[in-house]
């Protein structure tokens, strides 16, 4: 049984957040699954640091299987994009709070392009 599943594998264990992050196949970037919160912030920031180290012109962040991203998780994404020497980050299929937080705190941040769900 996955550590994120409750008894019988029917749902998350109360208070346990899970985040899986891995490379995208066939293009530069990462795919995340789960939720990005205080509990999972460390692996999220590590994945973004790896993404920045490997960044060339365009990097992709696939979030279609992410249920939730807190403000600090969006901030880590924005700070990563701002720290790149050039190019952009394309965020694909994020939860609705991601573009809202980006537009609120980083309006007009051209280094991040959001492809909606």
TrEMBL record:
Q: Which residues form the STAS domain?
A: 30-102
Please report a single Pfam family linked to this protein. STAS_2
Query: Where, by residue number, does the polypeptide cross the bilayer?
Result: none
User: Any idea what this protein is called?
Assistant: ABC-type transporter Mla MlaB component
Q: Which organism is it from?
A: Streptomyces rishiriensis
Phylogenetic placement of the source organism: Bacteria, Bacillati, Actinomycetota, Actinomycetes, Kitasatosporales
């Amino acid at each position: 049984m996955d550590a994120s599943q409750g008894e019988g594998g029917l749902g998350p264990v109360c208070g346990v957040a899970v985040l899986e992050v891995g490379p995208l196949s066939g293009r530069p970037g990462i795919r995340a699954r789960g939720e990005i919160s205080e509990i999972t912030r460390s692996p999220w920031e590590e994945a973004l640091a790896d993404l920045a180290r490997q960044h060339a012109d365009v990097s992709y962040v696939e979030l279609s299987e992410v249920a939730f991203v807190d403000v600090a998780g969006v901030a880590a994404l924005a700070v990563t994009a701002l720290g790149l020497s050039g190019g952009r980050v394309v965020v694909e299929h994020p939860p609705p709070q991601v573009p809202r937080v980006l537009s609120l705190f980083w309006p007009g941040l051209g280094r991040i392009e959001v492809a909606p769900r």
